[in-house]
Hints:
Strand order of the largest sheet: 7-9-11-13-15-17-19-21-23
Number of domains: 2
Number of strands: 28
Largest sheet: 9 strands, parallel
Helix content: 10-25%
Amino acid sequence: MLMFCKHLLIIAFALMAFTAKAETKTVNVETAGTLSTLIKGNDLNVTDLTLTGNINKADIAFIRQSMKVETLDLKDANIVAYSETVGETTIEYPANEFPANVFQKKENDDAIIPLKKIVFPTSMTSVGSYAFNSSSQSQLETVDFSNCYNLETIKDYAFEFCNKITEIDLSGHANLKSIGEYGFGQTGAKTINLEGCSALESIGERAFYQSYECTALNLKGCTALKTIGNRAFLNLSKNSAKTESYNLVLDFSPCTSLETIQESGCQSAKAVAFIFPASVKQLQKNAFNLCTNAQYSRYFCKLPELGSSALKSLYKKKCYVLSGNKADYENAGFTDVEEFDATGIKSIVSSSANGKAYSITGLPYNGTGIRIIGGKKYIK
């Protein structure tokens, strides 16, 4: 009996090993568009697929339509240009762009898309419009941009409704110039990290709207950012703000080129404080209206041009302004205004909880000087 059990165990382990092997596959595609000829039989059931070589939209569409892939590693793959004709229309898919619409799940689409994780190619420069947009529940949890050193653009609606994504990490992508409209709207992101995106000029309309679970937004080093679009951060942290440890500060001070936050750009964002750089010139209608969790705001800028109700919810909160600007802010409606002298300020610490200091330009700072922690000055 004992011997029989041992044999059963050996067979079970062998089957497990075989199954694990069958579910993982690496394929080198020498000629773009030929993946369907390289994947046959049981290989259609692999859940962990790595592709190298040259691929195009047809190959990725084949994965979506005919396979059960949960983890897709494209790090060492090159996306080749592709065109297709639909009716009388020719659609072009550029080289080095993850194809538009390819994993889109439209309303009333009953197909199951099991993809949970994707590692993007090193050579990729953009993610196409609606690439992963999902009008019904998406399974996508992880989007890995860590190898995309040449990434320039996240196009419109690329990841909208991917509500299982918990982290958006684009840090260190010094070539990223724009995040399109609705690009990451309604994801489940708890952290949004744009640190070091030094070429980023615009965050589009509703780019991160209704990121209800967000607890951290990092804009350090975004020195080229000029515009935050209409409703870009609408309802940021709506759910996470209910937790006891919540202390999100929307610190725009590293964004030293930021001029405009468009209509409702941060409306209903549940941050405990807001910090604005000297460059801000215009806060449009409702830009920070209904930000009811705010405890204070700080302005390194003169009073910006204010649209209707742009700062309405902040008027009765503590307001720190540059010396010489108190009267302007009081005339605008602020009731608790305190001036501060920016001379000698070496760094800003947005929250005493993180314990880290950054210079006003967004770079890490470990030296001595005047700091601001929780709205108050400290000397180190």
